[in-house]
Predict the structure.
Amino acid sequence: MGWLPDLADPTFRPGWREQVRLHWVANVIMLRSWHHTVGFILWSLIALPGWLMWAWFFLFLAAVAAKGSLATGAFIATTALGLIPILAIQHMAFVVAFRRHYAPCYRMAMNRAGTPVCEGCGHLLGQSRAACPECGRVA
Ligand SMILES: [Zn+2]
């Protein structure tokens, strides 16, 4: 799993105007799909308990700091460090949501724009439109 997921074969390098257009169409495709929209939101909410715990932790430490029992620097450092695992989980949830629910929509947009691509893995299919040699998916 990369830091940011691949949408398609890395040899596919559209210009920025084409990228904007493909993302626009991909967003419309995703928003018209109940499955992809709800799936994306649910995956994105995975870190919510962590955010709530962090908010509670922040308020608790802020109250302790207000009483003078915790230095301001320690308060800032502790609450900032507490964000790191939550941001990591949030990012991983985003990558999964992106791969499962956005990337297929982007590939559908590529197919509609005339670039045959496997909607399962993003492999460029050329003109054959047979089963994907990379993942075996049949269009
Ligand atoms: Zn494939």
Observations:
- The helical segments are 16-32, 34-44, 48-66, 72-112.
- The first helix runs from residue 16 to 32.
- The chain has a mean pLDDT of 91.
